[in-house]
Amino acid sequence: MAKTQSNRASLDKQPREVAAMFDGVARRYDVTNTVISAGQDRYWRWATRKALALRPGERLLDLAAGTGVSTLELRKSGAWCLAADFSKGMLAAGRFRDVPMVAADAMALPFADNSFDAVTISFGLRNVADTDLALREMLRVAKPGGRLVVCEFSTPVIPVFRTLYLEYLMKALPKVARVVSSNPDAYVYLAESIPDWPNQRRLAMRIAANGWASVKWRNLTGGVVALHRAYKLG
Ligand SMILES: C[S@@+](CC[C@H](N)C(=O)[O-])C[C@H]1O[C@@H](n2cnc3c(N)ncnc32)[C@H](O)[C@@H]1O
Questions:
Q1: Burial, 78: exposed, middle or buried (Cβ in 10 Å; 0-12, 13-18, 19+)?
Q2: Distance (Å, whole) CA 39 – CA 36
Q3: Is any ligand 1 atom within 6 A of the Cβ of residue 19?
Q4: What string of H, E and C letters represents the secondary structure of 197-229?
Q5: Any idea which of 60-64, 177-181, 223-227 has the lowest mean pLDDT?
Q6: Which NCBIfam families does the record cross-reference, listed alphabetically (predicted)?
Q7: Disulfide-capable partner of 223 in 36, 38, 157, 206 (CB 3.0 to 4.6 Å)?
């Protein structure tokens, strides 16, 4: 029990606990994701790149980028893509990747106002201690007219599928993580934090309440994941 408490963050998400948990996950993070999502992670990353519609020469901030696996996909667009995360363990595990990386806290970004054409965060916003502050920081560093794409676990829309998915999250996922992950306890946190997270409509309202305009979303894999898109008014 003591081990469990020390290796995963609690649902009130103390930043230091979250960073330590991801430091522990880092070594086998990429492979664990692909296994527990049955390969869907690649589709979700591809869909995020399409939603951002980046052009060569644009500047993108990939926030909570972890090992840079999300950034690598985005770089295929030809845009300049910067990976930022506050877990030094995650950044170190991805340092073999040819993407620029910076240690940064989503709640106090070390960038000037109006710096990026687009800002994105994949499977990260749910983990940030203060969601609203992170959304406002992303708005601050985006250029006028700049776009936001949030890729995050969400609520499956078909009730029967939702029930089966919750069973998978609570029962099977921790067992699978025990086989593949370098910190299986973190996946208990993952399983618990997903049902706790706002559904598609509520997250859209939250994004809009923090100053982003024209918020829309699209479900992926029946709503297991949702892509929220928005703009900074010019
Ligand atoms: C599930 S990983 C996502 C990594 C990557 N974006 C991906 O798609 O695989 C979540 C990341 O959020 C980062 N994170 C959580 N809170 C953060 C914060 N306040 N500032 C920066 N990064 C944060 C963690 O360190 C972790 O690397």
A1: exposed
A2: 8
A3: yes
A4: CCCHHHHHHHHHHCCCEEEEEEEEHHHCEEEEE
A5: 177-181
A6: MenG_MenH_UbiE (TIGR01934), PRK00216.1-2 (NF001241)
A7: 157
Q: What is the distance in A from the centroid of ligand 1 to the CA of 92?
A: 13
Evaluate whether 129 touches 14 at the Cβ level (below 8 Å): yes
Buried b (16+ CB within 10 A) or exposed e, 219-229: ebbebbbbbbb
Q: Whole-prediction pTM value?
A: 0.94
Q: 140 burial class (0-12, 13-18, 19+ CB within 10 angstroms)?
A: middle
Comparing CA positions, the residue from 90, 232, 219, 231 lying closest to residue 155 is 219
Report phi then psi at 57, rounded to 5. 95, -15
Q: What is the pLDDT of residues 21-40, one digit of tens each?
A: 999 999 899 999 999 999 99
**105 annotated as a binding-site residue:** yes
